[in-house]
Amino acid sequence: MTESVISCHNVSKIFGPNPAQHLANLKADPSLTQAGYVHAVREVNLEIRRGEMLVVMGLSGSGKSTLVRCLSRLIEITGGTVTVEGRDIATLSEPDLIDLRRRKMGMVFQSFGLLPHRSVLENVAFPLEMRGQDRATRYSRAREMLELVGLKGREDYFPRELSGGQQQRVGIARSLAVEPDIWFLDEPFSALDPLIRREMQDEFLRLKGMMNKTIVFITHDFDEALRLADRIAIMKDGRIEQCDTPDKIVLHPATDYVAKFTSEIDRARVVHIGSLVRPLTAPPSGEPVPAHRTIRDLARQLISDPRVEIPVINAQGAVIGSVLRQAALDVLLGDAQ
Amino acid sequence: MERDARFAGTAKLLLALAVGLMVFKAILPQGMIRPPEWLVLPFADWINVVFSFLQNDLGLMAVTRAFSAVVEWLLNVTANLLYGKSRWPNLGPIPWSVIAVTAFMAGYALKGWRLGLISGGTFVWIALMGQWKWAMETLSVIVVAAPFSVILGLVLAVLAWRSPRFERVLNPILSIAQSLPHFAYMIPVVVFIGVGPKAGAIVTIIFSVPPMIRMTLLGLKKVPEEVIEAAKMSGATRWQLLTRARIPTARSEILIGVNQVIMQCLAMVVLASFIGMPGLGQKLLQLLQSLKIGLSVEIGITIILLAVTLDRLTKAWALRQPMHEAASPSWITRNRLLLIWLTLCAIGFGLAHVFPYFLEVERRQALSVAGPVDALMDHLIRLITPVTLWLRWFLITWVLIPMRDAYLWLPFTAVLVLLAALGWAIGGLRSALICVAYFGLIAASGWWDRAMITVYMVCISVLIAAILAIPLALWGARNPERAGRILLICDTAQTFPSFIYLIPVIMLFGVNDVAVVAAVVVFAAVPLVRYTIEGLRNVPPEMIEAANMSGATQAQLLWHVRLPLALPTMLVGANQSVMFSLFMVIIAAFIGTQDLGQEMQRALSSTDVGKGLVLGFAVAFMGLLTDHLITRWSETRKRALGI
């Protein structure tokens, strides 16, 4: 297991006139509800590993945006601890926190959060300007970033002159300008039209493939989560209901709430052969299937294959076990569990 | 609903009590008809004690003297540059031709040809009419006062935004400040600074700060949270956050604040002629007092042109959205406007050097339209005199005097109970108490009769204004193009300094109550028309469609859908209308009324701070009372409609 970059221990966030007092009252009586207080995040424990992409999924009001703001200390947490690379961020002084954000973190926002009076180029260069880099360096870096997100030639435009998708590209370029290790994306594509959203997801996967970053991605769209995530954390009423790989969430939902989400999903598109692997009972026979393909990818073969047990190989070509054809067909036809 | 019913019950009871007090006036003791001696408190003396303490014992005089020295020095610099007063830096005067082309280029750069022509043309008119010196005296004060107000407003707004406690203290002060009549500001300034341009500048600064604070605060609060979060995540420090994210993002609101500051400055600087401020205002005052209509029309046109120019220029600046320019490597194409401006200025200086006409238009070379205007006016007045005479007679005999007598007849206790009933009907106990407190204080100030005359003037004017304005607005709103045109006229009319409205009414009615009422009616009708049209225009189209599909006739549509939905917006207009008329009634005092305004003028000429401020607060309380009631009512209506 790789080291964790961000870890949350019992993180709670309460909005209200006196949150600390309310949290103490809650300890005594967990079922307490009091007018004027909103318990946005409740006792969240989470480890985010280096280089992984964690998608936090939940409906609106489930506390996911609040959680991501706790991780970057855009809002102060009420209880628990958040550590980033081993340092408790609640204890950081203001200069240290600013320094952490300047060097380590980037964030993309749902409504883009672009500065309306600055050109695209100046917006992307903004974090570099905050660090005090000179004009020539920051503009050349900003141009590079704009080229990366496909906005070359639009450097002198102003945000309001761009479409939503283009504005979010600017937001992405800005968040990447400082080469952050940790990349937060707060519903980056929710404000976009479905077609543009799809295009931006592809773009995002391309960028993600080019760099090795720890990513926390917030969305309310389960399909988007399944498409992008290494792991998904599903939130409801400020709690994390389940945090696992997409395969496990689909195959083994921890709660009824999670099960309800997964019920409408075409599981064959999500579940990989690898997650159905079991130890071999007999020596492998015939053509093996690769573990990283989804069941849907291999549907044709699975239906026509005469074998009861099909050997599975990993990316290096070594046999790691086998999959029962019947189990795979159950997933494909929606009969699993 | 149940709450509302209870409100109505108590309100009716109070109303009955008020009527009872009126009916049995004959048997009421004198102390219930007019505030008795023991109730009248010597507020004026108290204020005078405080002021003399501030002035003499606390040494505040030294501070204000120092501040006014700075202002005076700046005024001298601008005076030298604009009209050649012989003070440092001794460079001026800048030729009028150069200022005119500069104004033209500013207008062109901000909006285009039309604005360029309006602003350039204004200065050409001023120069050719031989009013250059007066206009520049006025402008030199604005040039100094406006930046002071803007900076002061920005700093105070940022402080208020940082500290909610400071905002809570500041808010009521701003409300009172914005409802104090102009003259109430002048008296303390005369005490501390004296009279003249310096005092004019300082009273202008003080008067124009509140809207800047309000607009900046609004802008800072409206900055989207995500923009701030994005800047924080970019590692901005607090200072960077304020100067590079918050203030630039609030740019439009802040610049609207600048626009309001400049318009308030112009309005005040014209009025500051009452405390010896030279310039257009003083000239206008003299000409009006000697009834030289033609010449005062000339000055009036200049003031209107200046108002329109300053308003349009700053508004264009505020509303200008950033636009990318086609990439062009050449320095000359990128800076072509700058180059054209510099060339035109050089030509201007050159011409002024060779032909003094382009430096300053001498009085004897100046054009004048006074002769023709006077002739035209004589003709016109002769033509309509029968009408105006009849109107004057009718209004005075059958409306104004009976109304005034009725207001003065009312026992003060009945007025208080009546207001309590009104307050209770609109906002329950709290509003009733607020109403009684405001008017109770007016009663305790000892100026009850004068205050009732002011109230009567405002009431009758707003009533006449509404009778004229609402049908006009209904007619205007029926056609979008017509509505647009009427709104444009209203917007323009609102930028005129209030003083201007006195010219035509004096022309038509002479110097008396009817003229005052006429001026106030026009001034008060503008916001009513404007907000009624806006309210009607902003009724959601799907509601009108739904009503049409339910088979509503035009009249039903108006009464059951459009007017109720427009009412909250119309109330905003009514609120402004009352405010405007209060200000106007006070200003109009110098053409002869017997209300608070007249007393305020007396306080001004005898520099009686205590009396002046007591009178000012009495006017402010009337404004605040109306504001409270109308805001409460409009909020309730909005909640009921779910807007």
UniProtKB/TrEMBL annotation, chain A:
EC number: 7.6.2.9
Keywords: ATP-binding, Nucleotide-binding, Transport
Keyword Transport in record: yes
Alphabetized GO MF terms: ABC-type quaternary ammonium compound transporting activity; ATP binding; ATP hydrolysis activity
Keyword ATP-binding found: yes
InterPro entries per UniProt: AAA+_ATPase, ABC_osmolyte_uptake_ATP-bind, ABC_transporter-like_ATP-bd, ABC_transporter-like_CS, P-loop_NTPase
PANTHER family, per database record: GLYCINE BETAINE/PROLINE BETAINE TRANSPORT SYSTEM ATP-BINDING PROTEIN PROV (PTHR43869), GLYCINE BETAINE_PROLINE BETAINE TRANSPORT SYSTEM ATP-BINDING PROTEIN PROV (PTHR43869:SF1)
Protein name listed in UniProt: Trimethylamine N-oxide transport system ATP-binding protein TmoW
Native source organism of the sequence: Cypionkella aquatica
TrEMBL record, chain B:
Subcellular localization, as worded in the UniProt entry: Cell membrane
Gene3D superfamilies per UniProt: MetI-like
Chain segments annotated as transmembrane: 93-110, 117-135, 141-161, 182-207, 261-281, 293-310, 338-359, 380-401, 407-425, 432-448, 454-474, 565-592, 612-630
Membrane-topology descriptor: Multi-pass membrane protein
InterPro entries reported in the protein's UniProt record: MetI-like, MetI-like_sf
Single GO cellular component term: ATP-binding cassette (ABC) transporter complex
Keyword match Hydrolase: no
GO molecular function: amine transmembrane transporter activity; carnitine transmembrane transporter activity
Assigned keywords, A-Z: Cell membrane, Membrane, Transmembrane, Transmembrane helix, Transport
Domain ABC transmembrane type-1: 135-314, 451-630
Any GO BP: choline transport
Entry's family note: Belongs to the binding-protein-dependent transport system permease family.
Protein name stated in the entry: ABC transporter permease
Organism: Cypionkella aquatica
